[in-house]
Amino acid sequence: MKKYAIGSVLSGGGSVPKPQATAREWVDMVNEFQKWTLSSRLGIPMIYGIDAVRGRNNVYKATVFPHNVGLGATRLEAFLQ
User: Fold this and answer.
1) How many Å apart are CA 59 and CA 48, to the nearest integer?
2) Which of 35, 54, 32, 55 lies closest to 45 in space, CA to CA?
3) Largest Cα–Cα distance of the chain, in whole Å?
């Protein structure tokens, strides 16, 4: 990140720290990315994003939030049927 002046990272589609990574391992990975970015000449923090439509379903023991949570948040019973 420092070498190529990368300012943002998007994790998606199977990009994991390792198979069955824990939440701690994800945090450690992102913190390491941030450390590299902050050590650049300008010291600007990176923007980090993750493609997690249903929650982090590839994080070991993570809670998965199905689309039904979003549907319930509409409070439109007819829409749910």
Assistant:
1) 17
2) 35
3) 55
Distances (CA, A) of 18 to 6, 33, 58, 69: 22, 15, 10, 28
| Terminal-to-terminal C-alpha distance of the chain | 47
Q: 39, 1 in Cβ contact below 8 A?
A: no
Per-residue pLDDT of the chain (81 residues; tens, 9 = 90+): 777 888 899 888 777 788 888 889 989 999 999 999 999 888 999 999 887 766 666 666 776 766 777 777 888 888 777
Cα torsion angle, 56, 57, 59, 64, sign: positive
Report which DSSP code applies to 54.
Answer: T
E strand segments, the chain: 8-11, 47-50
